[in-house]
Amino acid sequence: MKTSSSRFEVPVLLGTQTLFNIGFYAVVPFLAIVLTNDFLLAGTAVGLILGIRTFAQQGLFLAGGILADRFGARSVILIGCAVRAAGFITLSASLWSGTPTLWMFILGTLLTGFGGALFSPGLNILVAAAQVARENNQHSQAKQSTLFAWLSITGEIGAVTGPLVGAALWGWGFATVAGFGSAFFVLIGLFLAIALRRPNPAESPTGQRTDASKQEVPPGGLRRCLTDRRFVAFCGLHASDLLAYNQLYLAIPLELERLGLPTQWVGLIFAWISILTLTLQLPLARLAGRIGAAATLRFGYLCSALGFGVLAFVPALVFGNETGPARILCAVTLLTLGHMSVHPTALSLVPKFAGRRPTGSYFGLLASCGGLAVLLGNLLIGWLLTQSGDGTVPGFLPWMVLIVPLLLASWLAAPLVRMPRTLTTQM
C-alpha cells in the first residue's frame, strides 16, 4: 500500500538529509582556506569562486526540479549523488600534483553545486509525497509542516557533524578530506538505490492514485509553473527569506568584524543557531499547524525583519556594551526563529500550489528565485555595507534592503496561501 510504503520511506528520507549535510559540510567549509593557502588567491577571487558554486546549486534548482518531473525523483537523486561525488574527487585531484590546478578546482566546485541542484529538489518531492500521504491518512492538517520541520532538524544534525568530520581528517590534507566526501556520496547513492522504492506507475508525484495512461509528465510543465501567477508571486516574496538567512554568511560576519570581535564568534553564533534549530523547530512546527500557514508566514517574515531592525535602529548601548555581541545575538535569534517558521511552511505549501501537477518545477522555481535574490541582493548589500563603513551612506540603509522585502512578504504572502484550492489546481 502507498501509506505503508511512505511510512517506511520517511526515516530513509530524513536520514538522507543528515547524510547529505555530513558529506557537504565535511568539505565545503574548507574551500576558502584551500583557495587562500594553496592557490594564493585574494579575497575577491575567493568570494567569486564560492559565489559561482552557490549559484550553480541554487540557480539550477529549477533545472533539477524539471529533470525530476521528467525522469523521476529517485533517478535524479541518484544522478545528483554521482555528480557530487565526481565534484569532490575533482577537488581532491586538483591537489594531487606538485602544483595545484585551479581550473580543476573550479570545475569541482561547480560539479558539487550542480549535484546539489539535482538531488535536493528530488528529496523535496519525495518528502512532499510522504507528507500528502500522511495528511490523507490522518484526514487532518494539524501536522502539515511536521515532515519538513523534521527535514530541517535532520539537516542541522548533519551541518553540525560534517565540519567535525572534515576537521578530524584535515591533518591528512584537503585532498583526503575531499576524497572522503566523494567516497561518502558514492555510499549514499548505493544506499538510496537500495532503500528508495521505484515509483509505482499508478501514482502521481504527489502520492495520489492516477490512471496508468496518465503517468507521464505533461508537456510544458515548466511553462505551466511559470504561468501560475500566484505561485510565481509567492516565490518572489519568499525569496526574501533566503536572502535574509544568507546574511549569516555575509552581513553578520562583517558586522562582527566591524565591532572588532574575534573570528571565533562566527563559530559560536552558528553553534547557537544549531541549538535553536534542534530545540525549537518542532515546537514551532506544531504551533504553525495550529495557527495555519498564513499566520505562520506573517509571523516568520516579521520576526526576521525585526531582527534586522535591531541592527538598523537599536543602539548597541541598549544591550549594555557598545562593542559586545549581545545585539548581534538578539538579531540572529530573531532571524533564526523567522526562518524556522517560514521555511518548512513554504515547502509544505508547494504541493498545494501544484495541485495534481508534478511538483519538481515548483520546488525548483521556489529555490531558484531565492538563489537569484541572494546573488543580486548580496552584491547590493555588500556594496552598501562598505559604503556605510566609510560613512558614505547611513548605517541603517544596508539593513533596510533586507527589512523592506520581508515586510512586503509578511503583508502580501498571506492572501496567496488563503486562496481556494480550486484556484491552485486549475491550469
Report on the architecture of this protein:
With 427 residues, this protein is an all-alpha fold. The chain folds into two domains: 1-217, MFS general substrate transporter like domains (Growth Hormone, Chain: A, Up-down Bundle), CATH 1.20.1250; 222-421, Growth Hormone, Chain: A. It is 77% helix and 0% strand. Helix 6 packs across helix 14, helix 10 (229-245) packs across helix 15 (360-389) and helix 15 (360-389) packs antiparallel against helix 16 (397-417). The two termini are 30 Å apart. Mean pLDDT is 84; it is low at 1-5, 140-144, 205-216 and 421-427.
Per-chain topology:
Elements lengths: L1 H24 L5 H7 L5 H16 L2 H11 L1 H21 L8 H37 L7 H24 L4 H22 L25 H6 L2 H17 L5 H8 L5 H28 L1 H21 L12 H29 L5 H30 L7 H21 L3 H5 L2
Keywords: Cell membrane, Membrane, Transmembrane, Transmembrane helix, Transport
InterPro entries: MFS, MFS_dom, MFS_trans_sf, MFS_Transporters
Protein name: MFS transporter
Helix/strand-derived category reads mainly alpha
Number of strands: 0
Distance N terminus to C terminus? 30 Å
Helix residue percentage: over 70%
CATH architecture of the largest domain: Up-down Bundle
For the residues shown, what is the average pLDDT? 84
Stretches where pLDDT is under 50 for at least 5 consecutive residues are 1-5, 140-144, 205-216, 421-427
Look at the structure and name the CATH superfamily of the largest domain: MFS general substrate transporter like domains
Give the percentage of residues in beta strands.
Answer: under 5%
What is the third-level CATH name, the topology of the largest domain? Answer: Growth Hormone, Chain: A
CATH class of the largest domain: Mainly Alpha
Largest sheet data: none
Tell me the number of structural domains: 2
Q: List the helices and strands in order.
A: HHHHHHHHHHHHHHHHH
Radius of gyration: 21 Å
Shape estimate: globular
Number of helices: 17
